[in-house]
Amino acid sequence: MVFFRSVSLLSRLRSRASNLSNSVRWLQMQSSSDLDLQSQLKELIPEQQERLKKIKTEYGKVQLGNITVDMVLGGMRGMTGLLWETSLLDPDEGIRFRGLSIPECQKLLPGAKPGGEPLPEGLLWLLLTGKVPSKEQVNALSKELHDRATVPDYVYRAIDALPVTAHPMTQFASGVMALQVQSEFQKAYEKGIPKAKYWEPTYEDSLNLIARVPIVASYVYRRIYKDGKIIPLDDSLDYGGNFSRMLGFDSPQMQELMRLYVTIHSDHEGGNVSAHTGHLVASSLSDPYLSFAAALNGLAGPLHGLANQEVLLWIKSVVEECGENLTTEQLKDYVWKTLNSGKVVPGFGHGVLRRTDPRYTCQREFALKHLPNDPLFQLVSKLYEVVPPILTELGKVKNPWPNVDAHSGVLLNYYGLTEARYFTVLFGVSRSIGICSQLIWDRALGLPLERPKSVTTAWLENYCKKASS
């Protein structure tokens, strides 16, 4: 009897040990799943697919507004015509990332240290899942991006084939195009991947692209301005800190600025030129590299991303002509001089916003904290007081308030990144996070080829004549 009791006891102990081992393995798997971004998406995508299907079935005929001739002739402003999940721009409140304002993101998203600026990896997680990540999830994503951050030699050779005098955006876009050789989506499509799985190789391309663009961008900067002396990626640093370091700036404050910069520039809903271009090109099933390269070419325009370059150059022209200690009256005269010459005051106004850009405000708060006595920052503060009343007096501007570009150049200049021609490349690195996040959802939701209807001037004239009669 003792023998059989011992065997029975041993059997129960083994069973409990086996159950305990299984529980531990389950917890490890659960923990691994929680920390893996792609696993999170695999849970979320079916829910969103059903949600979109229901909206289309039940509300497909609901009208969202009326299109006017002014809208057709005015660059489609005011038309509601795109689905963009990752962010929404309110004319009064400014941008919201998955429902969170910039101050809320600064408060809720993990930083490199408590109370620090939000880590771009955290925003990427938020844009893709709609959930605020934990510090552990952000750290896991940061490590994954490190593992993906390998750039083939032929990418550097493609950039080196251009003259060093080529605009930084030209060199950057060329590098992104060269990365396309490794597109997982293109390979999968050629093999015949089912449409329902399009998002999976798109995810691989997008995460690879986001991981690699800071390396390509910093290579362009070092090639043009630092005699080609390259600084390698540091596995101990996060996305923004690493980008700052690879550019050549090790200051903790500059690294914090880069975290803030990449976060707030990442996305601005879908109607702006770069976001819309990326979405449009991707709707033809071009891979993320081709789509993002196209977006960069739109970002390079003076009416879009190139504006941050023009702001700093204009501010420096004010100082050159009037000196650093100029009076308010001198500044007013220079603003009027700029406007009377047929030019705009760069950094003021916005196609959608009707108040001060929250992205401007958070950069101003950063400056007040870290560089309150910088002469160029003080000039920017003066412009905030001087320019809006003048633009209001003109009566032609719907939004006389400063936008994001009015401030970013002065901050970068203070920490030593003085080359204004390069600023738009920084913007491009940031925008990869927003554009690629939305592109993954475009593929997951099966959004169609974008093909709006166009008309001729004669068609408009005839239509309006018939309507008026």
From TrEMBL:
Pfam families: Citrate_synt (PF00285). Signal peptide: none annotated. One of its GO terms (biological process) is tricarboxylic acid cycle. The keyword Transferase applies. The active site is at 304, 350, 405. GO terms for molecular function: acyltransferase activity, acyl groups converted into alkyl on transfer. The keyword rRNA processing does not apply. It comes from the Eukaryota. GO terms for cellular component: mitochondrial matrix. Belongs to the citrate synthase family. This is Citrate synthase.
